[in-house]
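Why should sequence recovery work at all? Because a backbone constrains its sequence more than one might expect. Tight turns favour small or flexible residues, buried strands favour hydrophobic ones, and helices have their own preferences. The token representation captures these environments compactly. In the example below, the structure is given first.
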């Protein structure tokens, strides 16, 4: 019985002209623009929280450019260790 159901579903999928998302009537819950805005907001909030902790310790605050430069340097080091070209 399970094999028959799977066979029917595979046959429907094979002959259906639309995309799989259309077949399932699936729509993304958020647009890519909203996802990008959420990501930017998350980074800002994490940086603010990190700077708050650094202020409590008396350490200098960090800005986004400094953080990006550090991440880029770490990624280049990872590529170098793997024998990559180092170009991003």
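From this structural description, the recovered sequence reads:
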């Amino acid at each position: 019985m399970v094999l028959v159901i799977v066979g029917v579903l595979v046959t429907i999928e094979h002959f259906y002209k639309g995309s799989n998302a259309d077949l399932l009537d699936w729509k993304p819950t958020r647009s890519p623009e909203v996802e990008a805005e959420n990501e930017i907001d998350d980074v800002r909030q994490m940086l603010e929280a990190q700077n708050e902790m650094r202020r409590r310790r008396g350490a200098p605050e960090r800005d986004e450019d400094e953080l990006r430069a550090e991440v880029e340097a770490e990624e280049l080091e990872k590529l170098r260790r793997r024998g990559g070209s180092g170009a991003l």
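A few observations help interpret the result. Residues 18 and 82 are 42 Å apart (CA to CA).
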